[in-house]
Structures are given as structure tokens and as C-alpha cells.
Amino acid sequence: MKESQSFIRVALILFNIIIFGSIGYMLIERWSFLDSLYMTIITISTVGYSEVQPLSAGGKVFTSFLIIGGVGAALYAFSIIVDFFLKGRLLNIFRGDNKMDIIEEQLAKLKNHYILCGYGIVGKVIARRFKYEGAKFVVLDTDSEAVSEAIEDGHLAFKGDGSSVDDLTKLGAERAKSLVVVTDSDATNVFIIVTARKVAPDIYIIARASSEESEIKLESVGADRALNPYHAEGERMARLALHPMVSDFLENVLPGSGRDQYLEEIEIDAETELCGKSVAEAQKLGKGASILAIRKKGKRILPKPPDDQIIEAGDRLVILGVREQLNKLEKTAEPVA
User: Averaged over 67-90, what is the pLDDT?
Assistant: First the structure.
């Protein structure tokens, strides 16, 4: 963007010099526009051609000022323009601007999406999972190569800073469902979380932490959950070793290829069909899907809720079932038109 603006500015300088010189010769020497234009160009380009016609005293003075004031600027402008063409950057810039316009149009349409800050090792794994699940998401990273890689992987990606209010606003943070912060730096993650809370106070934030101490700090500045991916992976491997059957069961119900059963989470809005229904009624609507837990406001969790438990606005349901059952239950959780 900056390079395209620089190119346009230099082109305008050159254009103004040419117009100024042409008008000057037309007024002083009474030449035609074509002769005046030609004289201006050969003067500022220093090609050494002779004058179109003999110059008057006024014309010589004007030419002297044109050489002093215009040649340096014109040569600089010519060098910038030639550099753009020789390096093949001109077309790339306009392509880039056009691509940026397209990306910004896509971002403006996003709603209930996920924002993934950081496209490193952990970020790539999360992005693949999002894509597999069909979730709407956008990758945000400060590194151009990481953004390019994300685009090559088929993801919507934007180069920017998660700690910038403007960038988070462009990504529709106030309309987003969740923000996942997985940069390699705890300090950077803190800045992103604090900024996100300013832009979208109610957004659900999950952050990567480098240690247990960092988990506490990240949650204290506004993250809803902070996790150490290495710690979590270690726990998973220990579970596999100690309780292989339990681990296999959990692996089987988590989303993934070849799975029959899925665990999903549904948030209840006041304008949905499920709001005010009992657990038993909700499970009938889901054609057999099981509600394993309800997370109430204030993070209180009700495991194995009784059949007569009423589902309220703001509740989050943890549901187990086959895809068809979950789809039916999710439709009843959509706001009533």
C-alpha cells in the first residue's frame, strides 16, 4: 500500500513538472502545445536536443529555472518509475491492492467467526482443525511470510497486529465468536488480550501460555482460558499410557475423520426454541442427542444435568451425538426469525 502511494506521488510530481513547463512555453514563446510539451520533456530529461525554435530572452530565463527546479525532481521520478518496471513491482502492487480490497470485503461479511492470532506450529494445527470443521475464521499475523503461507494453505489471512485496535476492528472482533491467541510470546499475547477486551468486551478468548505461571497471568488480564500446548500434549500422552481405553473413547467422540459420534458446544440465546425447555425436551428435539453438561453463567458447570433442568439464555450445552442429531439440535438453538 505504501509503495503504491509512493509511486502515485512521484508520478504526480513528474506530471505537474511537465504541465508547468508546457504552459510556461506556451505563454512566453507562444508555441503550440505539442512544441511546448516536447521542449519541456527534452529539457527535464537532459537528452541534449536543440531547441524546437530559437528562444527569446524570457524563454531562456524560464528554461534556466526549469532546469534548476525540474531536472532533479524529474530524474528522481524517472528513476523510481524505472525501478518499479524493471523489478516487476508495479503490477504486483496493483494486484496486491486489489487483493487487499477483496480480503477487506470478505472480512466485512464475517460474523460469529474465529480470529486466530499467530500462524506458527500451534496456529497451523488449529487452522487445519477449523477448516476441517467448516468454521469461519481468519488468520492474523505480523509476519508477511506466515500470512502468505496461510493463504497458500487455503485460509483467509490478514497481515496485521493483534494488539492494534484498528486491525482487530477490521477483522470484526466485535462480531466474532472467539479469539484464539497463539503467538510465541507471552508478552505479545498479553497485549493482544488487553486490546481485544477493549474492542470486544464479551468475546471468548483462548490464549497459548508458555508455563503454568503464564496461564495465571494471561487469565488475569482477560483470557477466558489459557493453555500450555506442551503441557496438554504431555497430559494426553500420559492418559494414553495409563488409561488407553478411556483415551480411545475420548478420541472417538472428539471431531475428526472417521468419527461416528461428536462432542459439540451450543450457546443458548434468549430468542431460540431451546431457551426455557427442559433437558429432556431438548434431547427429544435432538432425536436422541445427549446433553452431557451445562455451563451456566459465571463458569459454573452442571455435569449430567437432570431431565427437569431448565435451559436458560446464556447457557452453554455440551452435547454428544451423531452428526444428524447435532445438526437438528443446532437448528433449534438458532434465533427464531
Answer: 67
Same domain, 167 and 214: yes
Question: Is residue 214 located within the same domain as residue 273?
Answer: no
pLDDT band at 213 (very low <50, low <70, confident <90, very high): confident
Distance between CA atoms of 180 and 122, rounded to whole angstroms? Answer: 11
Contact 315/294 with Cβ under 8 angstroms?
yes
- Residue 257's pLDDT is 47
Note whether 307 and 332 are within 8 A (CB).
no
The pLDDT of residue 4: 59
Q: 195 is written with which cell numbers?
A: 486490546
Q: What's the Cα-to-Cα distance from 91 to each of 1, 76, 80, 94, 96, rounded to whole Å?
A: 13, 20, 14, 5, 8
CB count within 10 Å of CB 207 equals 28
CA distance 253 to 260: 7
In the chain, how long is the greatest CA-to-CA distance? 103
Full domain range(s) for residue 48: 2-89
